[in-house]
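User: Can you predict the 3D structure for this chain?
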Amino acid sequence: MQIKSLALQNFRNFTLLSFNFTKTNLIFGANGIGKTSIIEAIYLLASAESFRAGRVEEMIRLEADLGRVQGLIEVDAQEDLKLEAMLTRGMVAGKKTQYRLFAVNDIRRRKKDFLAFFKAVVFRPEDLRLVEGSPARRRGFLDNALSMVNHDYSSALTRYEQTLKRRNRLLQKVNEGQEGREVLNFWNLNLLRNGEILQRQRASFIDFIREVVFPFELNIEYEPSIISEKRMAEYLEKEILLGHSLIGPHKDDFTLKFSEEKKGINDLSLLAYGSRGQQRLGVLWLKVAELQFLTDKIGYQPVLLLDDVLSELDSHSKEMVLSLLASYQTILSTADADVLADLKEKVKDLNLIIL
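Assistant: Here is the predicted structure, written as structure tokens:
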């Protein structure tokens, strides 16, 4: 499955623009010209989400009421699908509407049904901070991969986050004497039920990552903040005192570790002891694992989106990324003339898109 073409209407800074894609594609242009917007639009068709917009309206051109992203997806030699995501400000022609509307071959589809047709993995410069960044960034990595292939996980994550906000407000009210602690019972049960789903699926994904073969010897250790009826009871008094929930998937994390047999190094923290280059190899391992995980779950290879990341990598990591091009349809972006020259030399039949 590959994306053959993309059409944008009132998306970000683009009024009307279209592109055709082949196996390996490079979007080249100056910083700020819109390369990341094209990558974002493709990812929107794959995930129904933006990797950078806090609100849907941010993706719509300022002068417009709605935006459209259309992609022609080649399912096989005999069949193409037209995917469309329409973005609104909540009003169209004076009538209230959803902020995101989805269609397949011009037939309206629910979000969960729309997501069944196309998948992509994006690798951005921000991802290079997965090792040294906050636990929230690492939880986001787990959530994004799992939500793309597991609707039950995505639904449980939404319910968990909504329940967590409600429960935290109630903990504050109990602390202030405005409510009795029995008001927490329903929300405790919901938090527990959905939290257990999230942690079970996260643990399964971590187990999958451990099995991914990689030239650099890495390991991953899941560090769940276990949610259970017993632990919730143990932490309740402190949670009431502080006014927020102290345990559960929203506190989960994972640690990357590396080994070097020749030096007698085993399972050292990549954050504490790894070099900058080794840390970037750790992030690359996670992205390779995400690609393989999605392929395993959906039965075909997702599109690989590399957003201006090659210039951020050392030569060894860059070669490892380029080795993926033979296996996946890839859409890269760069403002670096050296990267452009390198790809022209190394990639046969490179489809160059200049903005």
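Residues 263 and 334 are 37 Å apart (CA to CA). The chain has two domains: 1-119+302-355, 129-299.
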